[in-house]
Amino acid sequence: AEVIAVEPTPPTTAEVIAVEPTPPTTQPVVDENGILLYTVQAGDTLFSIAQRFGVSLDDVIEANNISNPDVIFEGDTLTIPPAG
């Protein structure tokens, strides 16, 4: 009988790189018409957003046709009216 030697294959290794997701920006964006747009972040309230941009709560509600100012969702895009 013939004896055949088989060399074991070395184990393959792969480098694992952990990638952290980029946190969403809290910076407002100005669209092509010069309108300021803000993406709601976790913990935001309409009041805190209005304060941040120096506008009234009522103006933010009106600019976005919001029927219930107590309900906004993370990821919503709001139009921020001009201050003053």
**Oligomerization:** single chain
Structural class: alpha+beta
The average pLDDT score comes to 85
Largest sheet, in brief, is: 3 strands, antiparallel
Q: Give the C-alpha Rg.
A: 27 Å
Helix content: 10-25%
Distance, first to last CA: 96 Å
Please identify, by name, the CATH architecture of one domain.
Roll
Order of helices and strands: EEHHE
Number of extended strands = 3
Return the CATH topology of one domain: Membrane-bound Lytic Murein Transglycosylase D, Chain A
> What's the CATH H-level superfamily name of one domain?
LysM domain
Which descriptor suits the 3D outline?
rod-shaped
Percent in strands:
5-15%
Strand order of the largest sheet: 1-2-3
The stretches of 5 or more residues where confidence is low (pLDDT under 50) are: none
CATH class of one domain: Alpha Beta
What is the overall number of helices? 2
Provide structural commentary.
The protein has helices spanning 46-53, 57-63, and strands at 29-30, 36-39, 77-80. The chain is of the alpha+beta class. The chain has a domain at 29-80: Roll (Membrane-bound Lytic Murein Transglycosylase D, Chain A). The longest helix is centred in the middle third of the chain and has 8 residues, at 46-53. The chain is rod-shaped and about 95 Å long. The mean pLDDT is 85.
